[in-house]
Amino acid sequence: MIRYIIRRLLISVPILLIGSFACYVLVATAGNPLAEMRFRPGVTEADIKAAEISLGLDQPVVVRYWNWLIGFLSGDWGQSIALGQAKTAVFPAVTDALWTTGRLVIGAELLALTLGVAVGVLAAVRQYSIFDYLATSTAFLMFSMPIFCVAVIVKNYGIQFNNVLESMGLDRWLTTAGPRPGGFTGSFGEVVFKYTGTFLLPTVALMLISFAAYSRFERASMLEILHSDFVRTARAKGISQGRVVFRHAFRNALIPVATLFSLNFGAVLSGAIITETVFGWSGMGTLLVNSVRQFDPPMLMGWLAVTATLIVLFNLIADIVYGVLDPRIRLG
Amino acid sequence: MNLAVEGGVVGSAPQAGSHEFDAAKTRTQGQLVLRRFLRHRLAMVSLGVFVFLVLFAFLGPFLWTYDYEDVTSKSYQPMSGAHPLGTTQVGKDMLALLMRGTAYSLQIALIVAALATVIGVTFGALAGYLRGFVDTALMRLVDLLLIIPQIAVAAIVVKGFSGSWYVVALVLAAFAWMQIARITRGETLSLAQREFVEAARACGASTPRIIFKHLVPNMIGSITVNATLAIAAAVLTEAALSFLGLGVQPPDTSLGVIVLENYGQFLNRPWLFWGPFIVLVSLSLAVNFIGDGLRDAFDPRQTKVRA
């Protein structure tokens, strides 16, 4: 097992290197970070030349990539070069954004997984019941739903709910414009109140989307297993329905869902980007959108490198989980 | 599997096989598939919706009074006879905008699906048939593309080159072919072991001939289904990208751009949000249902068992 993990990690290294190089070339060819400078009054050709040299833009791409890579690996991720902004270091900017997004995504994903699995199992056990049709069609509908529309709808009903609260003489509870900086203060009750108010809406929006995928997947894999021979054998032996479902079928039906959970990372990330934008959280999504708008290559590279590494890690976790849960699969 | 099939014929989906043989009329595979598809009620309704949306997008502008570029003097008109869906802040007619937006979203989605299918089938079939080096190289390329978030690459390309609809389509296609390539590769691996392929090779057929004359026609079912699903996925991805302001750029418009420009009016002028929302959802739902119907038509054994 350990040998397998080490081998997988070693295979990931060239993929990450080639991937980051491809990204670097893409970012380098996509635009000139100094383009805006030319339009500013009082900027001479010499100023631009000087800026180019200070950013190393006069060197070939391969050299620049090499310098970036060395810097990245030694913890020096460079400085943001977006114009009109204080020079921020890339490392804290990206890690802060990742922390913000992580807090949002982890809760939403765990909720979606729990609910999705529960609904999927119920739908499979009561196949063709009203509950099954309801669950299946809801999942299908959510699957065809644009994520940003779900987020917009959730947000606006949240605002209306707040208005109702206010008209009843209560405080506005749900936050629709991102978490307040500086964390939550006050008594325990107040902290809980503010915390849930801040997280509820974006979590619901993000959850609805993943939930559809999990429940569909769990239902399909549960159905397949309920129709398999070993379940029929278990039934034939006279084992009770509950025991067959939970002891024999459920455990096996969890395997593909567990893999989906770890493989889903990329999709969840893009969902989070959209949800964050709608709810005004300054996480990975906002960071990406801003870095692209202002065309900030160091920030973009930091963002891309972190997400690519995370995706590789999650893929590895998916394979390991698969191997642990299902001993028939031989890793190697 | 047998149990699954018995369970499968309970629903409204057409019963495959038995009674069609009883009819004692020989039908080709294609006719059978077409019959099953035409009897799939949900798929037919969806096909109707899809055709309606296509007509709405491409024929509508010729019939409707306003053009999507026309700026009337009336900002934020409510719904009325002159403007059935009201006007936007700058006074553009929402119905005209929707026609244009739907046309752009459709154009992009169809091109993405077509490109993704051609690239995916070619690469997948080559990898599965030739195996060895070609296969390894392809799978590594897929690994590579999987670790880079599509949304970021698309955003950078659109920012760096242009927000024209064909650029958006090309970037989306660059990431959409992998799914189809994987499925094609898998099916090719098993089909290539069959006798008819061996026979073709013994007759001296070239690799392209074996792939496109013998292998691809045998996979046409899953290729068609996945091409359809790729359309639905492309509609949603394009809309999401444009919604973030990183896809199609104004003054061009797409369904995502229309939602982006109007979702702030959700509470005060809800029709400006719900109009594009309904078009977007019915487009993606219709295409998904058509894909589902096609899947049932091509492979009736799967009916109702899949998720």
From TrEMBL, chain A:
Residue span, ABC transmembrane type-1 domain: 98-322
InterPro entries to which the protein is assigned, alphabetical: BPD_transp_1_N (IPR045621), MetI-like (IPR000515), MetI-like_sf (IPR035906)
CDD domains according to UniProt: TM_PBP2
Subcellular location: Cell membrane
Transmembrane segments annotated in the record for this chain: 9-31, 104-125, 132-154, 192-214, 253-281, 301-325
Domain of life of the native organism: Bacteria
Cellular component aspect of the GO annotation: plasma membrane
Principal subcellular localization: membrane
Alphabetical UniProt keywords: Cell membrane, Membrane, Transmembrane, Transmembrane helix, Transport
Membrane topology of the entry: Multi-pass membrane protein
Gene Ontology BP annotations: transmembrane transport
Family, per entry: Belongs to the binding-protein-dependent transport system permease family.
Protein name, per record: Peptide/nickel transport system permease protein
UniProtKB/TrEMBL annotation, chain B:
Subcellular location: Cell inner membrane; Cell membrane
InterPro entries cross-referenced by the UniProt entry: BP-dependent_transpt_permease, MetI-like, MetI-like_sf, OppC_N
Gene Ontology biological process terms in this record: peptide transport; protein transport; transmembrane transport
SUPFAM superfamilies in UniProt: MetI-like (SSF161098)
One CC-aspect GO term: plasma membrane
TM region(s), chain numbering: 42-64, 104-129, 141-158, 164-184, 223-246, 271-291
Superkingdom: Bacteria
Membrane topology: Multi-pass membrane protein
Main location group: membrane
Record keywords, A-Z: Cell inner membrane, Cell membrane, Membrane, Peptide transport, Protein transport, Transmembrane, Transmembrane helix, Transport
Domain ABC transmembrane type-1 per the UniProt entry, residue ranges: 102-291
Recorded family membership: Belongs to the binding-protein-dependent transport system permease family. OppBC subfamily.
Protein name stated in the entry: Oligopeptide transport system permease protein OppC
